Amino acid sequence: MKVVAIVGSPRKNGNTEILAEYTLKAIAEEGIETELIPLAGKDIKFCTACMACVEKEQCPIKDDLFPIYQKMKTAEGIILASPVYYGSCTALIKALMERAGYIARHNNNAFSGKVGGPLVIARRAGHNFTVAQLDFWFHILGITVPGSSYWNMAFGREKGEVNKDEEGLRTAWDFGKNMAKTINKLHS
Q1: What are the angstrom distances between the C-alpha of 180 and each of 32, 93, 113?
Q2: What is the pLDDT of residue 149?
Q3: Alpha-carbon span 181 to 71, nearest angstrom
Q4: In whole angstroms, what is the distance from residue 170 CA to residue 148 CA?
Q5: Which of helix, strand or coil describes residue 90?
Q6: Could you report the per-residue pLDDT of 159-180, keeping only the tens digit for each?
Q7: Which of 71, 74, 30, 6 is nearest to 183 (CA)?
Q8: Are 127 and 85 in contact (CB under 8 A)?
Q9: pLDDT tens across 8-42, in order?
């Protein structure tokens, strides 16, 4: 069993990546393999609604998306992590959501029955909308989203500031534990 955490921040080793790694550590403690997939430095283009994925499980856009999609498809769990940019998720993670979602939905609902959820971090505000934005993606694709001790969000701007947000870290940890429990129950 495996969980992939996709980090939609264009900044390497930033707060979003730190929060995702922390969550994956909680999951790994429960005996589930984990993989962090940072999108920083990757080329993920936006969906053009060409609908080629309806005919065949592929995307004609040549970039870094399809290998990530394959990892999402084979994993039992998917985490999407994003910083808040102007009150929303990053364009990078949004492009991945659009294209991976289209491909999965039109190819036997490839993500249905998986377990997943969002992780969101911001300096000050925009968390709630971004959590909802990511959460809706999980729900429309039939992915089970376990709860936590609060909404899956944390505070921080400069690299490493998230480590000062004890409640945010605890929430991410609890989410990871609940995600692992759900996966283990579904696959026992």
Answers
A1: 7, 23, 14
A2: 94
A3: 21
A4: 9
A5: coil
A6: 999 999 999 999 999 999 999 9
A7: 30
A8: no
A9: 999 999 999 999 999 999 999 999 999 999 999 99
For residue 17, the model assigns a pLDDT of 98
Structural domain boundaries in the chain: 2-183
Phi, psi of 90 (to 5 degrees): -70, 155
Residue 188 — pLDDT band, cuts 50, 70, 90? confident
Residue 135, pLDDT above cutoff 90: yes
Which structure tokens are listed for 172? 């991410």
| Residue 131: closest CA among 147, 152, 150 | 152
The residue behind tokens 């102007």 is 86
Q: d(Cα 6, Cα 38) in Å, to the nearest integer?
A: 6
- Domain 2-183: which topology? Rossmann fold (3.40.50)
Residue 120: beta bridge partners? 82, 153
Torsion of CA 99, 101, 105, 106, to 10 degrees: 0
